[in-house]
Amino acid sequence: MNNKIIEIEDIQKSFNYGGNLLSILKGITLHVSSGEFVAIMGPSGSGKSTLMNIIGLMDRPTAGSYRLQGQATEGLHEEERCRLRNKTMGFVFQSFNLLPRFTALRNVEIPMLYGGIAAFERSKRAQALLERVGLEHRLYHRPNDLSGGERQRVGIARALANQPSVLLADEPTGNLDQRTGKEILLLFRELHQEGKTIIMVTHDREVARWADRVVTIQDGAILLNDTQEVFLQKHGYDCGKPSLEPGLVSL
């Protein structure tokens, strides 16, 4: 049985820039199994964000193939891509992207509006998700009344609203302090242990080390595709997942 949820084969992405063809992705092949926690790591300009946009059906490749849950995506119309994205993907952003006029509860409900979920069920599910991320005491607070870590927890709850198969996280700790960043990574670990597939983009190897697999991209191509154990050994870490205990790991 094929348990691959994401199958990317020889993906290329080019842009026409000032009359010149600029190649961003140069033949990326990447498979992600259901339940995996994968970090995509690379410096600014490496192509990792472009790859994430293609995985999230926010952009189309110039060439190559992409199957999501066994479904070919190349020939889908935009409306079909939107439906598949809303059903399959949950997005977590570095800058949170919460609507400032809405409460935490309302922000989490919004994706369910597009899914046609009834108002009572939306409210019930949103409340349960906020409780799941430890914000049962912040249901009716607006984003400006929340700390950075609390805003990101709302963002994670919102990403889970439509019960997606895959969580896509773009630099989810980038705007957080060290301790809060660790708490968010611990929450991702818990979601992964519950069976969620997570793909996380980062430029920081201290964040990437929380994943089961680390894919390093450089100049639009995959440079390394390491298991967590190999990644930790290469960078001189003790084997084993990072801990929140003081002094055991630095973010």
From TrEMBL:
- Domain spans labelled ABC transporter: 6-244
Which InterPro entries does the entry mention? AAA+_ATPase, ABC_transporter-like_ATP-bd, ABC_transporter-like_CS, ABC_transpr_LolD-like, MacB-like_ATP-bd, P-loop_NTPase
Keyword Transferase tagged: no
Which keywords describe this protein according to UniProt? ATP-binding, Nucleotide-binding, Transport
GO cellular component, alphabetical, reads:
membrane protein complex; plasma membrane
Q: Which Pfam families match?
A: ABC_tran
Give the molecular function GO annotations. ATP binding; ATP hydrolysis activity; transmembrane transporter activity
Record's protein name: ABC transporter family protein ATP-binding protein
Q: What organism is the protein native to?
A: Heliorestis convoluta
